[in-house]
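Progress note, sequence design subtask.
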């Protein structure tokens, strides 16, 4: 049996979120250029950004509220051509 190691999952990697905060499925994280948000590319939710301070709060929310947040972020994303950004929870 041959075991392939995944180079991108090296133990030296900094804290990384491997599950989509909206749909909770495994996603690829797009490495952020800024320090205060994380960008994901999710097969269900699409590409979006979320503030690091908002991730914990989102994970505590019911599924319907998470999706509403993402929908609102999409509407605010330059008429749908920009990348949705979930910046804060209120
Ligand atoms: Zn998702």
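Output:
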């Amino acid at each position: 049996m041959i075991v392939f190691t995944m180079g991108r999952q090296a133990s030296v990697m900094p804290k990384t979120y491997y599950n989509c905060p909206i749909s909770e499925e495994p996603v690829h994280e797009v490495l952020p250029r800024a320090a205060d948000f994380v960008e994901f590319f999710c097969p269900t939710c699409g590409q979006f950004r979320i503030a690091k301070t908002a991730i914990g709060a989102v994970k505590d929310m019911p599924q319907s509220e998470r999706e509403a947040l993402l929908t609102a972020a999409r509407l605010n994303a330059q008429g749908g051509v920009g990348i949705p950004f979930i910046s804060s929870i209120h």
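Strands lie at 28-30, 37-42, 46-51, 85-86. Work on this subtask will continue into the next period as scheduled.
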